[in-house]
Specification:
The protein has 299 residues and is an alpha+beta fold. It folds into 3 domains: 110 residues, DnaJ domain (Helix Hairpins, Orthogonal Bundle); 60 residues, Urease metallochaperone UreE, N-terminal domain (HSP40/DNAj peptide-binding domain); 90 residues, Urease metallochaperone UreE, N-terminal domain (HSP40/DNAj peptide-binding domain), CATH 2.60.260.20. 30% of the residues lie in helices and 26% in strands. It is built from 8 helices and 15 strands. The chain has a 4-stranded mixed sheet. Helix 2 packs antiparallel against helix 3 and helix 4 packs antiparallel against helix 5. The longest helix is centred in the N-terminal third of the chain and has 17 residues. The N and C termini lie far apart (86 Å).
């Protein structure tokens, strides 16, 4: 029998035979992201591994195909060994050729194509009465704003333009899997940076400067939000550099949750003092309480 007979698809993906559908999908996405040819140019070993894990996921990622494959594994364990049929097996009537043909159908005949969207390295392959889905992969770049709000992109597929919805809240490096009639579209998403805001999961982040006097005496500081409506943050007296304040409900809004805006204050030390400012600061320095700390040596 050929090498397909000795290939365990669970081992190819590196998952347990009782792994949940969610665990299988999560593992496949991680491997596909690491092994994709666009990430590993001119790496034949990575490309071969990418093809192998995608082929394994084509079977294990489909409940019906997985059930048939599990039945096949049982036949192999009960009725066949690596070099041919064993006597007394539960499916002694089946031949090695029958089993090999079944696995070949599951694995699918694949024709290699070029990299990039629209020409998948895996072409459609027959599986029973169903059409084996082709896997189309593409790297897409979207803006920070589109990642926060969601957008629709258009890609040129083998059968013409494809309009694919990018959900609000997608993160940099995420994979989006879209099932179509006879295709599975996998998008690797790269999210651009924003001049003011950052991301921490569903939360938006922002750094804002405050003066020494605002930090020491307290103040209300107005900061921008992503929807364009400024909000006021109450900075209490004695606020240290690097403290973070949370503004509820001003983060990323998705269908299932809404994040917050995390505002970190940066205390700015003045550098261009006027003579009057310098004199007043010196007066304060003369009467302020000395800092006592184990890492400070008093004069």
């Amino acid at each position: 029998m050929n090498d397909q007979m000795n290939t365990d698809l669970y081992e190819v993906l590196g998952v347990a035979t009782d792994a949940t559908a969610k665990e299988i999908t999560k593992t496949y996405k991680k491997l596909a992201r690491e092994l994709h040819p666009d990430v590993n140019p001119d790496d034949a070993a990575a490309e071969d591994r990418f093809k192998a894990v995608t082929a394994a996921y084509d079977v294990l990622g489909d409940a019906d195909k997985r059930a048939e494959y599990d039945e096949f594994r049982t036949i192999m364990e009960q009725g066949f060994g690596p070099s041919g049929p064993r006597t007394g097996g539960a499916h002694g009537g089946a031949t090695a050729s029958d089993i090999e043909d079944l696995l070949a159908q599951m694995m699918g005949g694949r024709a290699q194509g070029s990299r990039g969207f629209g020409q998948s390295p895996f072409g459609p392959a027959p599986f029973g009465q169903r059409q084996h889905p082709a896997t189309l992969m593409a790297n897409v770049s979207i803006s920070f704003a589109d990642a926060v709000r969601g957008t629709t992109i258009t890609l040129e597929g083998p059968d013409g333009p494809m309009h694919i919805a990018i959900p609000a809240g997608v993160e940099d490096g995420a994979q989006i899997v879209v099932a179509r009639d006879h295709e599975q579209v996998v998008l690797q998403v790269a999210v651009g940076a924003d001049a003011r805001f950052g991301r921490s999961g569903p939360n938006l982040t922002l750094t804002t400067p405050i003066s020494i006097t605002e930090a020491a005496l307290g103040a209300t500081v107005r900061v921008p939000t992503f929807d364009g409506k400024p909000v006021g943050i109450k900075v209490p007296a004695g606020t240290p550099h690097g403290r973070t304040f949370r503004v509820a409900g001003k983060g990323v809004k998705t269908e299932t949750r809404t994040g917050d805006l995390l505002v970190t204050v940066e205390v700015i030390t003045p550098t261009d003092l006027t003579d009057e400012q310098r004199e007043l600061l010196q007066q304060f320095a003369d009467i302020e309480t000395p800092i006592k700390h184990r890492n400070r040596v008093q004069p």
